[in-house]
User: Fold this.
Amino acid sequence: MASKKIRCGWAPEGDVLYVRYHDEEWGVPVWDDRVIFEFLVLESVQAGLSWKTVLNKRENYRKAFARFSPSRVARYASADIRRLLGNTGIIRNRQKIKAAVVNAKRFLAVQKEFGSFAKYAWSFVHGKPKVNRWRILKNLPATSPEAIIWSADLKKRGFVFVGPTIIYAHMQATGMVNDHLVSCFRHNACVRLAQS
Assistant:
């Protein structure tokens, strides 16, 4: 009989979407600017909502936001915002939709300055993931010193919906920090990915 995989408690066995996200994406180091932009938009959309709500609408977001192309989203005008507000497949919050457009413009400015957004983002963890060794889910922090510093820098650059909690969630999602519990089968796998 095959042994059952041990996962972080927030990814319940029966929830296929959550399990796939946990097993294949969360904590995996991301250097692709488009994927980083996707998570930046999705994490800011999540503010005040559950991640499950966002995951359920992710494909709709990909279609509505030009597969998360920062250059295309940066050109969205009032008509695009009105169109998105009528899209029942996404979270129709005017401030969050406008935030995606504002952040796309700022994202492009960072790319221009640093050569890539990834290079800028990863500088806040000195180019390699911070590996935590949590044993209990309730010990996972809501933010970190690095997230607080990065959040402040993003705000200074004109980004919105980028508070320290949102930025820490983004860091977890993109593998800048490995917050899988040590008992989780993905903890060591993500450590190996970070070293490759």
Summary: The chain has a mean pLDDT of 95.
